[in-house]
Amino acid sequence: MTSKNETNYRCIRLDIDRWVATLTLALPEKMNALGDDILLEMQHALDALEADPDIRALVIAGSGRAFSSGFDLSPREKPFTTVQDWREHARMGNDTFLKIWRSRLPVIAAVNGFCLGGGCELSMACDFTLAADDAQFGEPEIQFQSAPPMMIMPWVLGMKKTKAMMLTGDRIGAREACDAGLVTKVVPAADLLQEAKALALKLSMIAPDAMHMNKQALNRGYDMRGFQATIDYGAEMFALIHLLDSPEKQAFFGIAQEHGLKAAFKWRDEKFSVR
Hints:
By secondary structure, this protein is α/β, with parallel strands linked by helices. The protein has eleven helices and eleven strands.
């Protein structure tokens, strides 16, 4: 295997094997939370792969016990205070995910462990999603007054399941996610990366120009039905929701500020586990 993980990548690892590239989110200590640094590195790597004619397929994986726990909620040096701040924040993630959506390459998400929030959106932007049998999917940010900045789920799932997930913030397991259409295939956790690379190699044997045109034709059909308009409107709602004030928001972020994010997530999970 030839590795292209040079010193210019700190948050990801990029490996090449024949026609297949594997981009691994490499912040296991943060459960591969999607901050600006990792998103920018992903954009640079995706641009490089797009321009390399030897690459015909891409696998995106996560290191450690999560594919990605979602967008990084760690305190920022300059907090977001305006709608434009939140618009720019949404744009950073959406620009990254749309590079995958529009790529000439077939892209496979190899999902292990937690695949939540922005991580869930990243998996949906990929053309295929293979999930370990212990994976969990969801948009739990709904439960502390947030929203997905990339409104892609309505294009992946049916109406009722989309509303069930996006209005409750509940998580679902890999099998349920596969039944709902969020996942292409569930595989044993130990076989996840091997299965993803085998599928990528199969896809790479198809003529690259034909692969590109077929993917483009499928995506153009979604665009004609309003895909990009939905993404843009969803990002605007994401920005506006974050400017709302509510007791729920004050409680969650108050706990996070005083006791840390782990305590805030524990408070949220305990609140929503009440029956």
